[in-house]
Design goal:
Helices cover 56% and strands 11% of the residues. It is mainly alpha-helical. Strands 2-1-3 form a three-stranded antiparallel sheet. Mean pLDDT is 76; it is low at 1-23.
């Protein structure tokens, strides 16, 4: 399993799960979230129990949006597409970026709007982050190729 992390401003990839570490299925949600809190950006969710996979994917999406957008940019991006425009209208934008992103992601998930098209749109908006968006899409069981095909 690969973990991409940014610690002390340095980006690196390291093997997280190996014979010397505990099996992923034995990890508690608190331990998994502590990886994220210490700077983990992407975690291969396949290594974790099914009941944690969507939670981890949602956290990864939130982290990506917080790192990729400020509040104004996110609102503009959400309002620019008919699928996400109702979500943008429902969000209270005069709160911290963390709170806005939490509300956006939870609303997107609740309405079934985390789709290949969402990741295609993210990639169109932030093409310099294609590799990260592809990893993120795979956590949701999508691929950017699938997202591109969905647009055509």
């Amino acid at each position: 399993m690969l973990l991409r992390a940014r610690l002390d401003g340095a980006s690196f990839i390291r093997t997280l799960m190996d014979r010397k570490t505990v099996e992923a299925s034995q990890w508690t949600p608190e331990e998994i979230c502590s990886l994220r809190d210490r700077g983990a950006l992407f975690i291969d969710v396949d290594q974790f129990p099914a009941h944690l996979q969507k939670t981890l994917a949602l956290h990864a999406l939130k982290d990506f949006l917080k790192l990729s957008f400020n509040g104004r940019e996110l609102k503009r991006w959400m309002q620019a597409h008919p699928n996400t425009r109702p979500v943008a209208s429902a969000v209270f934008w005069r709160q911290s970026l963390d709170a806005v992103v939490d509300e956006v992601c939870e609303t997107l998930q609740r309405h079934g709007l985390i789709t290949p098209d969402l990741f295609r749109r993210l990639n169109d908006e932030r093409p310099q982050r294609t590799d990260e968006i592809d990893i993120l899409a795979r956590q949701w069981r999508f691929s950017l190729e699938e997202a591109g095909a969905a647009r055509d």
